[in-house]
Amino acid sequence: MITIFLTFLKIGFLGFGGGYAMLSLIFQESEKLGMTVQQFADLNALDGLIPGPIAINSATYLGQLYGGFWTAVAATLAVCVPSFIFVPLFLHYEDKINDNWVLTAILDGIKPASVGLILAVALSLMLLTVFGINGLGEWAKASLDWTSLLVLGVVFFLDSKYHVNPVWLILLAGLLGGVVYYL
């Protein structure tokens, strides 16, 4: 329980750029706990279905997965503690931060880094889902999963052409996956 608490405390302190940008850090730290890429894909799917912040949902899921109810509570609290520290400090010093060109430049640099982290997570999930591999180093073992590619295409088409609500797209993708892979 202590290891998971400290892991999510670290994630809470170091996570910048929002929930999707934090997924890369969550994955790196959770790999040390023994999480597989498939479990990470499941976590990412649950994050899309369950309302609430991604970091909190991830902490709760992984805490439950690796230690049960009380570990889930500890992990959830750990990922929230840094916000309880930083938000009041930021609000107190907001004017000084906005007037400081160095801090503004640092925050401006975090924005593209966050996009890069989100793209890295998206690439990892695509490699697992569409090609069945855990990273570019396994490219020789890759095999195209046409069914996953078809589901991706249908969802992309419905989103781009008809702007279907993402909740419906997630439910549709889950239904298609359930029908194709388990029936």
UniProtKB/TrEMBL annotation:
Pfam families: Chromate_transp (PF02417). GO terms for cellular component: plasma membrane. Keywords: Cell membrane, Membrane, Transmembrane, Transmembrane helix. It is a multi-pass membrane protein. PANTHER family: CHROMATE TRANSPORT PROTEIN-RELATED (PTHR43663), CHROMATE TRANSPORTER (PTHR43663:SF1). This is Chromate transporter. Belongs to the chromate ion transporter (CHR) (TC 2.A.51) family. Its main location: membrane. The chain crosses the membrane at residues 7-27, 69-91, 112-133, 165-182. It comes from the Bacteria. One of its GO terms (molecular function) is chromate transmembrane transporter activity.
